Amino acid sequence: MIDTVDEVGRAAAEAGVACDYAKGGTIVYARSEPQWRAAQDEVAAAQRLGVDRLELWGPDSVHARDARGAVYDPACARVHPAALVRGLARAVEQRGATIYEHTTAEHWETGRVRTDRGTVRARHIVLALEGYGAATAQLRRRILPLYSLMIATQPLDEAVWDELGIEHGQTFSDGRHLIIYGQRTADNRIAFGGRGARYHWGSTIRDEYDRVDRVFAHLVATLQEMFPQLPPLEAEHRWGGPLGVPRDWHASVQYDPATGIGYAGGYVGDGLSTTNLAGRTLADLITGQDTALTRLPWVGHRSPDWEPEPLRFAGANAGLLAMTAADAEERATGRSSLIARAMSPLIGH
Questions:
Q1: Residue 217 included in any domain
Q2: Claim: this prediction has a pTM higher than 0.90
Q3: What average pLDDT does this structure show over 247-270?
């Protein structure tokens, strides 16, 4: 995965895709005593294992409210995901492929995919639907669509960025349980997102679920609380969409040579680089190669199915409430959350 961050940038540059790629690392602020202890433990474990080159920053190096310090991971890059997708689509079309948008896949079997506009025949079929797979009968219980929403603020002055201590190419988060994530964009906005939108009955996916005013307002408030040195923020852009969450929260890659059907997904929001790795792995599997990629432990992994409704609805939304409660528990007690500890086995931790 560390090498894949560089591979995304290399592949984009080779294809001539302008996507604001800049590798500046990520800062995860520790804004409470439990978060600070977890940060220290994480860096110590990384040093012991010798895999991630994490750095533990002290309070003088960070500028978030109440930050005791932060974990800095250099193996992270900022990118404009929409520009990357559009650029890669153009590159694929320039190589002779045809992309059929507004075409709904309804069913697949060996050698064919039935769509609402006709049947496509192919020797190899790759299922790469992520959260949208839940809209198909064949993947409905294999993946759960969990919404994550984002905002982009107005461009901020350089003086503000100096106060924040966030450089171009850097992304940021903190150690809370209900995940947040942000980046400094190429045009000096904060692009900021997080969980908080509820799961919808029956794994329903609708355009209106991409925009929830309550969640957008919460994201603005979270930024203002996290960085009190910010001016009043405006959410000039708002968007969202469903992530793909497998039952054990483990991504996987599969390919059956007998049927010619492959699958990749379950990235739980970490898909920008993971999809690159999955694509290269599938290419090796489909062409019958035995490589380091095809021997990765996620190859052939099969997550269990999600429970039927109403258990799926109750469990997904209870998990959301539990992570919110876990953050409140840590703020109130100053100790690691018992709620989060109880939930960990249920979310693959």
A1: yes
A2: yes
A3: 96
